[in-house]
Amino acid sequence: MSSVLRILLRRLGISVIVLIGVSMLIFAIARIIPGDPARIALGPNATAEQVVMIRTEMHLDEPIVAQYGHFVADVLRGDLGTSLYTNRPVTTDIAEFLPATLELVIFAGILMVGFGLPLGILAARHRGRWPDHVVRVLTLLTVSAPSFVWAVILMLLFAFYLPLFPVAGRLDSAYDITRVTGFLTVDTLIAGNFGAFLDALHHLVLPAVALALSGIGQAARLTRANMVETYDKPYIEMAEAYGFFPSRIARRYAFKPSLIPSLTIIGLDFAAMLGNAFLVEAVFAWPGLSRYGVAVILRKDLNAIMGTVLIIALTFLVVNIIVDLLIAFLNTRIRHSTRGAT
Amino acid sequence: MSALLDIRDLRLGFKGLRGITEVLHGIDLAIAAGERVALVGESGSGKSVTARIILGLLQEARAARVSGAVEFDGRDISTMPARQRAKLRGTEMSMIFQDPTSSLNPTFTIGRQFAEVMRRRQPEMSREACDRRASEMLAEVSIPDPARVLSAYPFQLSGGMNQRVMIAMALVNHPKLLLADEPGTALDVSVQALTLRLMHDLVERHGTAVLFISHNLGVVREFADRVYVIYRGRIVEEGPTRALFDNPGHAYTRALMSAVPRITGAGLPEVPEVSDDFLAPMVRHTGGAA
Ligand SMILES: Nc1ncnc2c1ncn2[C@@H]1O[C@H](COP(=O)(O)OP(=O)(O)OP(=O)(O)O)[C@@H](O)[C@H]1O
Ligand SMILES: [Mg+2]
């Protein structure tokens, strides 16, 4: 357990450094962008006096280092400023839009693990035979197009031509669900409205699949490759010579050593989905953080942009830490998938 | 004498890019219950594939074409359903491999692997019962501290220790036939000689029949009752160990013998050149022990 703790501490340290870097970067970019933040904030009809006043208020007349200091102090107090776009505190906006994105990404992550690993195991177990060929061709297809392309294709196929799934949104407007967590699949269950729960799931399927497809393909291909390598090991031959069932050999003998590399790639893909979600959300009109992010970027809403980037970076780091801890935990349990490790 | 294993006219081909490559060209081989039989020949002569066919593994490989009869305990392995074949493996017959350390699963403890093997025979066996039985078995192969070995991973043990573990594991289910494919050639010579002697005593006590595969005539001479010499997928000579060593009849056997290293248990025989005499008809020694 101490090694897990050590990894946690180290990752937390690295995360703090990364966050400082990200904050400096976005702060610098915000200052480089042409246009006076005070004027943007006040609008075109402001008087010169008003501009001077707001510049003092926003600390724009102080040296850049001091300005960064104020920025950090505000962030640490949980104050990300006010959005010019919604006229609300940025934190309020993020609290509203982030859960939709997280719900989508988590659901896609479940699909990635739930389909990627079993497909990889299936292909490896029947390596060189038709299930392997089918999985390899299909996964090659899924990894060769980015998720927003899949979003468009899936939407055309399964929402327009075959209207099996809704085209846009998270929930039918007929339902009125009290917001508790912001995760509609959870909130509908809290409200005890099972019909709404199913409707929320129904809305989730297409965007989540679009987001997960390439990750499923990658996880399956990597799992297959690792397992095929393991299948050549003498201890697999020994297991066969002792008559263990092929399915047992696949799961207990060949898959186990491949679990850690597979989880690592899934973790990376999971974090990358936060970025890919931007475009998928745009295609499916998913009211998440990405859509908010695009909207505020188009309006040069600096506070909102900086807040959004910070939150995404934070989420990314948290996901990475969780994945690392999971792998460290499994490592201590699996001990030695490769000889001489640790 | 009704044989435990009776192989008749066994042929094997591998489907490749340029048609089928024949590897075994009609092998006849029999092992009586409790008999120790050696199969000797140089690298690539078809020893391991024969063992894999007896285990019923090659019959399941897509590229392999197997024909002929492989009767084990009165039933033909080649024609029985895959499930039935799998049932025999690890229970009625088991196998020992060349490199013990890499043949044991590095992700499980020895105790766990013993339990998996024992549950092939008795699926309901508790872990405690498995550990108890495994300890007895480990004591039989002169492992002084069975409890420590059972909780260890294979890479934490020496090669010789793993070899003993593997012998114990192979015999724990009281198989009728043990296949040993160049057991322990990956090990130190003295360690190898020691574990072979252990194995010899153990199979004698348990009355286990053995097909002992080897390059090494010196080792074979000490271990086996009867010897088959295989050359390029054909049996070229067969007979009781004494008779065969005293009076080798086939040119290839003589070449193998002259190549035997002096020190018992070491190295590969190098048969210097290929001679047309090696393709001479099979020599069969009759009489003597069988
Ligand atoms: N899966 C396979 N596909 C194609 N050819 C094979 C396959 N397995 C074995 N062979 C061929 O069959 C022949 C016999 O191989 P085998 O492994 O039985 O040799 P061996 O007598 O055990 O040799 P060694 O002493 O080196 O272990 C070799 O020529 C080998 O190339
Ligand atoms: Mg071999």
From TrEMBL, chain A:
Coiled coil: none annotated. It is found in: Cell membrane. GO terms for cellular component: plasma membrane. The keyword rRNA-binding does not apply. Residues 98-327 form the ABC transmembrane type-1 domain. One of its GO terms (biological process) is transmembrane transport. InterPro entries: BPD_transp_1_N (IPR045621), MetI-like (IPR000515), MetI-like_sf (IPR035906). It is a multi-pass membrane protein. Pfam families: BPD_transp_1 (PF00528), BPD_transp_1_N (PF19300). It comes from the Bacteria. CDD domains: TM_PBP2. The chain crosses the membrane at residues 12-33, 104-125, 137-162, 200-220, 258-284, 304-330. The keyword RNA-binding does not apply. Keywords: Cell membrane, Membrane, Transmembrane, Transmembrane helix, Transport. Belongs to the binding-protein-dependent transport system permease family. PANTHER family: DIPEPTIDE TRANSPORT SYSTEM PERMEASE PROTEIN DPPB-RELATED (PTHR43163:SF6). This is Dipeptide transport system permease protein. It comes from Oceanicola granulosus (strain ATCC BAA-861 / DSM 15982 / KCTC 12143 / HTCC2516).
From TrEMBL, chain B:
It is a peripheral membrane protein. Residues 7-257 form the ABC transporter domain. InterPro entries: AAA+_ATPase (IPR003593), ABC_Ni/Peptide_Import (IPR050388), ABC_transporter-like_ATP-bd (IPR003439), Oligopep_ABC_C (IPR013563), P-loop_NTPase (IPR027417). Keywords: ATP-binding, Cell membrane, Membrane, Nucleotide-binding, Transport. CDD domains: ABC_NikE_OppD_transporters. It holds the Pfam family oligo_HPY. It comes from the Bacteria. Coiled coil: none annotated. GO terms for molecular function: ATP binding; ATP hydrolysis activity. The keyword Phosphoprotein does not apply. One of its GO terms (biological process) is transmembrane transport. GO terms for cellular component: plasma membrane. Its main location: membrane. It is found in: Cell inner membrane. The keyword Amino-acid biosynthesis does not apply. Belongs to the ABC transporter superfamily. PANTHER family: DIPEPTIDE TRANSPORT ATP-BINDING PROTEIN DPPD (PTHR43297:SF2), OLIGOPEPTIDE TRANSPORT ATP-BINDING PROTEIN APPD (PTHR43297). This is Oligopeptide ABC transporter ATP-binding. It comes from Oceanicola granulosus (strain ATCC BAA-861 / DSM 15982 / KCTC 12143 / HTCC2516).
